Amino acid sequence: IQFKSAANPSIPKPIISANDKLNTSTTDSSKRPSRTPIIIIPAALTSLITRYNCKELLEDLKYLSTEEGKASGTKRDGDILIQRKKGNLTVLYRITDDPLRLTSQDWEERVVAVFAQGPAWQFKGWPWSGNPVEVFQKIKAYHIKWAQLKTDANIAKWCVHLIELDQNKRHLDCARIRTFWDSLDQFIAKNRPTLRY
After folding, report:
1. In the chain, what are the domain boundaries?
2. 40 pairs with which residues across the strands?
3. pLDDT for 126-143, tens place per residue?
4. Do residues 120 and 132 make contact, with C-beta atoms less than 8 angstroms apart?
5. Opening angle at CA 42, ends 151 and 182, nearest 5
6. C-alpha closest to that of 62 among 146, 160, 147, 165
Protein backbone atom coordinates (compact mmCIF):
# COMPACT_ATOMS: atom_id res chain seq x y z
CA ILE A 1 0.00 0.00 0.00
CA GLN A 2 1.35 3.42 -0.97
CA PHE A 3 0.27 6.73 0.51
CA LYS A 4 0.22 10.26 -0.93
CA SER A 5 -1.48 13.26 0.52
CA ALA A 6 -3.19 15.85 -1.69
CA ALA A 7 -1.89 18.64 0.55
CA ASN A 8 1.62 17.25 0.69
CA PRO A 9 2.69 15.29 -2.44
CA SER A 10 5.64 13.77 -0.58
CA ILE A 11 3.24 11.85 1.69
CA PRO A 12 1.96 8.73 -0.09
CA LYS A 13 -1.79 8.21 -0.47
CA PRO A 14 -3.37 4.76 0.14
CA ILE A 15 -3.91 2.62 -2.94
CA ILE A 16 -6.78 0.21 -2.43
CA SER A 17 -7.12 -2.80 -4.68
CA ALA A 18 -10.46 -4.01 -6.04
CA ASN A 19 -10.27 -6.99 -3.67
CA ASP A 20 -9.79 -4.68 -0.68
CA LYS A 21 -12.85 -2.67 -1.78
CA LEU A 22 -14.89 -5.86 -2.04
CA ASN A 23 -13.74 -7.07 1.35
CA THR A 24 -14.47 -3.81 3.14
CA SER A 25 -17.65 -2.71 1.40
CA THR A 26 -19.70 -5.86 1.86
CA THR A 27 -20.18 -8.32 4.65
CA ASP A 28 -22.01 -11.62 4.54
CA SER A 29 -25.11 -10.06 6.09
CA SER A 30 -25.24 -7.21 3.55
CA LYS A 31 -24.78 -9.31 0.39
CA ARG A 32 -27.62 -9.26 -2.07
CA PRO A 33 -29.25 -12.68 -2.40
CA SER A 34 -28.27 -14.66 -5.46
CA ARG A 35 -30.70 -14.62 -8.37
CA THR A 36 -29.26 -17.79 -9.95
CA PRO A 37 -31.92 -20.52 -10.19
CA ILE A 38 -31.17 -23.94 -8.69
CA ILE A 39 -32.03 -27.25 -10.36
CA ILE A 40 -31.84 -30.48 -8.34
CA ILE A 41 -30.78 -33.69 -10.08
CA PRO A 42 -30.65 -37.22 -8.64
CA ALA A 43 -27.43 -38.37 -6.98
CA ALA A 44 -28.11 -41.92 -8.21
CA LEU A 45 -26.04 -42.81 -11.26
CA THR A 46 -28.95 -44.93 -12.55
CA SER A 47 -30.85 -41.76 -13.51
CA LEU A 48 -30.67 -40.60 -17.13
CA ILE A 49 -29.50 -37.20 -15.82
CA THR A 50 -26.53 -37.16 -13.44
CA ARG A 51 -23.68 -34.85 -12.50
CA TYR A 52 -21.63 -36.49 -15.27
CA ASN A 53 -23.97 -35.56 -18.14
CA CYS A 54 -26.12 -32.64 -16.94
CA LYS A 55 -23.97 -30.00 -18.68
CA GLU A 56 -24.26 -31.72 -22.07
CA LEU A 57 -27.95 -32.42 -21.56
CA LEU A 58 -29.01 -28.96 -20.39
CA GLU A 59 -26.46 -26.74 -22.19
CA ASP A 60 -26.07 -28.59 -25.49
CA LEU A 61 -29.51 -30.31 -25.50
CA LYS A 62 -27.70 -33.56 -26.22
CA TYR A 63 -27.94 -36.80 -24.27
CA LEU A 64 -24.66 -38.37 -23.18
CA SER A 65 -24.68 -41.46 -20.97
CA THR A 66 -23.24 -41.26 -17.47
CA GLU A 67 -20.54 -43.73 -18.51
CA GLU A 68 -19.55 -41.53 -21.47
CA GLY A 69 -19.48 -38.50 -19.18
CA LYS A 70 -17.27 -40.29 -16.66
CA ALA A 71 -14.97 -41.57 -19.41
CA SER A 72 -14.43 -38.02 -20.68
CA GLY A 73 -12.45 -37.41 -17.48
CA THR A 74 -14.28 -34.22 -16.56
CA LYS A 75 -14.28 -33.76 -12.78
CA ARG A 76 -17.70 -32.82 -11.49
CA ASP A 77 -17.31 -32.28 -7.76
CA GLY A 78 -19.69 -30.07 -5.79
CA ASP A 79 -22.36 -28.02 -7.49
CA ILE A 80 -22.20 -27.47 -11.24
CA LEU A 81 -22.85 -24.19 -13.04
CA ILE A 82 -24.34 -24.48 -16.49
CA GLN A 83 -24.60 -21.68 -19.02
CA ARG A 84 -27.83 -21.62 -20.94
CA LYS A 85 -27.80 -19.68 -24.19
CA LYS A 86 -31.06 -17.77 -24.55
CA GLY A 87 -31.05 -15.51 -27.58
CA ASN A 88 -28.12 -13.11 -27.13
CA LEU A 89 -27.97 -13.81 -23.39
CA THR A 90 -26.17 -16.43 -21.35
CA VAL A 91 -27.99 -17.35 -18.15
CA LEU A 92 -26.39 -19.30 -15.30
CA TYR A 93 -28.13 -22.14 -13.48
CA ARG A 94 -26.77 -23.96 -10.44
CA ILE A 95 -27.14 -27.75 -10.57
CA THR A 96 -26.90 -29.81 -7.37
CA ASP A 97 -27.39 -33.45 -6.48
CA ASP A 98 -27.15 -32.70 -2.74
CA PRO A 99 -30.40 -30.92 -1.80
CA LEU A 100 -29.79 -31.34 1.94
CA ARG A 101 -27.05 -28.66 1.69
CA LEU A 102 -29.53 -26.03 0.49
CA THR A 103 -30.63 -23.29 2.86
CA SER A 104 -34.25 -22.45 3.65
CA GLN A 105 -33.78 -19.25 1.61
CA ASP A 106 -32.59 -21.34 -1.36
CA TRP A 107 -35.72 -23.49 -1.14
CA GLU A 108 -38.06 -20.51 -0.87
CA GLU A 109 -36.47 -18.28 -3.50
CA ARG A 110 -34.14 -20.16 -5.85
CA VAL A 111 -34.99 -23.86 -6.24
CA VAL A 112 -37.02 -24.01 -9.43
CA ALA A 113 -36.82 -27.61 -10.66
CA VAL A 114 -36.16 -31.17 -9.60
CA PHE A 115 -35.50 -34.19 -11.75
CA ALA A 116 -37.33 -36.95 -9.92
CA GLN A 117 -36.94 -40.69 -9.95
CA GLY A 118 -39.63 -43.12 -8.82
CA PRO A 119 -38.96 -43.78 -5.11
CA ALA A 120 -40.56 -41.37 -2.64
CA TRP A 121 -37.65 -41.79 -0.19
CA GLN A 122 -35.50 -39.54 -2.40
CA PHE A 123 -37.35 -36.58 -0.84
CA LYS A 124 -36.47 -37.52 2.77
CA GLY A 125 -35.22 -34.46 4.64
CA TRP A 126 -36.71 -32.02 2.11
CA PRO A 127 -39.01 -29.15 3.10
CA TRP A 128 -42.76 -29.71 3.03
CA SER A 129 -42.27 -32.91 5.06
CA GLY A 130 -40.62 -34.51 2.04
CA ASN A 131 -44.06 -35.17 0.58
CA PRO A 132 -43.65 -35.35 -3.23
CA VAL A 133 -47.16 -34.01 -3.85
CA GLU A 134 -46.40 -30.88 -1.79
CA VAL A 135 -42.86 -30.56 -3.16
CA PHE A 136 -44.17 -30.58 -6.73
CA GLN A 137 -46.66 -27.82 -5.92
CA LYS A 138 -43.71 -25.56 -5.04
CA ILE A 139 -41.05 -26.78 -7.49
CA LYS A 140 -41.43 -27.84 -11.13
CA ALA A 141 -40.77 -31.59 -11.41
CA TYR A 142 -39.31 -33.46 -14.37
CA HIS A 143 -38.47 -37.05 -15.18
CA ILE A 144 -36.27 -38.20 -18.07
CA LYS A 145 -36.88 -41.71 -19.35
CA TRP A 146 -36.45 -43.83 -22.43
CA ALA A 147 -39.64 -43.74 -24.50
CA GLN A 148 -39.48 -47.52 -24.93
CA LEU A 149 -39.70 -48.18 -21.17
CA LYS A 150 -42.78 -48.11 -18.97
CA THR A 151 -43.24 -45.01 -16.80
CA ASP A 152 -42.64 -45.64 -13.10
CA ALA A 153 -45.94 -45.88 -11.16
CA ASN A 154 -45.07 -43.03 -8.78
CA ILE A 155 -43.93 -40.75 -11.60
CA ALA A 156 -47.19 -41.48 -13.43
CA LYS A 157 -49.31 -40.39 -10.45
CA TRP A 158 -47.25 -37.34 -9.48
CA CYS A 159 -47.43 -33.96 -11.22
CA VAL A 160 -44.24 -34.51 -13.23
CA HIS A 161 -43.31 -33.27 -16.71
CA LEU A 162 -42.06 -36.28 -18.69
CA ILE A 163 -39.15 -35.95 -21.10
CA GLU A 164 -39.00 -39.08 -23.21
CA LEU A 165 -35.87 -39.78 -25.21
CA ASP A 166 -36.01 -42.35 -27.99
CA GLN A 167 -33.07 -44.75 -28.15
CA ASN A 168 -33.69 -45.25 -31.87
CA LYS A 169 -34.34 -41.60 -32.83
CA ARG A 170 -31.53 -39.69 -31.15
CA HIS A 171 -31.95 -36.77 -33.56
CA LEU A 172 -35.11 -35.88 -31.59
CA ASP A 173 -33.19 -35.37 -28.32
CA CYS A 174 -32.73 -31.63 -28.84
CA ALA A 175 -36.43 -30.91 -29.41
CA ARG A 176 -37.50 -33.08 -26.48
CA ILE A 177 -34.98 -31.59 -24.06
CA ARG A 178 -35.97 -28.08 -25.21
CA THR A 179 -39.46 -28.76 -23.76
CA PHE A 180 -37.74 -28.71 -20.35
CA TRP A 181 -36.53 -25.14 -20.86
CA ASP A 182 -39.87 -23.98 -22.31
CA SER A 183 -41.86 -25.26 -19.34
CA LEU A 184 -39.25 -24.10 -16.81
CA ASP A 185 -39.32 -20.55 -18.25
CA GLN A 186 -43.10 -20.50 -17.77
CA PHE A 187 -42.78 -21.80 -14.20
CA ILE A 188 -40.13 -19.23 -13.23
CA ALA A 189 -42.06 -16.35 -14.82
CA LYS A 190 -45.10 -17.27 -12.74
CA ASN A 191 -43.51 -18.41 -9.47
CA ARG A 192 -39.98 -16.95 -9.19
CA PRO A 193 -39.98 -13.82 -11.40
CA THR A 194 -37.12 -12.14 -9.50
CA LEU A 195 -34.63 -14.81 -10.62
CA ARG A 196 -32.51 -14.57 -13.76
CA TYR A 197 -33.87 -16.86 -16.46
Report:
1. 33-191
2. 96, 114
3. 999 999 999 999 999 999
4. yes
5. 70
6. 165
CA torsion, ordered 127, 129, 134, 139, to nearest 10 deg:
20
Whole-number Å distance between alpha carbons of 88 and 73: 30
User: What is the residue type of 60?
Assistant: D
Give me the sheet containing 38-40, strands edge to edge. Answer: 80-86, 89-96, 38-40, 111-115, 140-146, 161-165
Q: CA–CA distance from 166 to each of 17, 33, 86, 173, 184 (Å)? A: 54, 40, 25, 8, 22
Q: Is 52 helix (H, G, I), strand (E, B) or coil?
A: coil
What CA–CA distances, in Å, run from 84 to 21, 145, 174? Answer: 31, 22, 14
pTM of the model: 0.81
90 — phi, psi (to 5°)?
-120, 125
Pick the CATH number of 33-191 from 3.30.310.80, 3.40.50.300, 3.40.50.720, 3.40.50.11990: 3.40.50.11990
